[in-house]
Amino acid sequence: MFDANESCRVVSTFRECDKHSFRTVEETRFRYMMSIVSLNFKNISRHTAVKDVLMYYAKERDHVKEKLAKAPSLICLTFDNWNSDHTNDE
Asked: Which of 1, 12, 19, 23 would you label with 49, given CA atoms 20 to 30 Å apart?
């Protein structure tokens, strides 16, 4: 069963996690692929893709804030940043 909201979320996750540009959703091959996946999929613009990513980010940020606020004890957040010598990955 096709779910328009779920398809937008999946496209946003695909675009963000795999580091595709927002223009990807306007490319002919991407639109063709999505038309094969579901006849109900409606093409979106890169501007809509930006709005979707920001909306999903805000929801996830709020979810994490709620989880942290409910933590039974203190939390220490740390991070480590590294660069690969062979790629542009950080």
From this structure: 1
Query: What is the DSSP annotation of the chain?
Result: ---HHHHHHHHHHHHHHTT--GGGGGSHHHHHHHHHH-TTPPP--HHHHHHHHHHHHHHHHHHHHHHHHT-SS-----------SSSS--
Supply 5's token pair. 């909201």
Any idea where the domains of the chain sit in the sequence?
Answer: 4-70
pLDDT tens-place string over residues 5-17? 787 778 877 877 7
Residue of 21, 2, 8 lying closest to 51 (CA atoms)? 8
Question: Model pTM?
Answer: 0.59
* End-to-end alpha carbon distance in the chain: 38
Q: Tokens 């709005």: give the residue.
A: 51
pLDDT at 47: 92
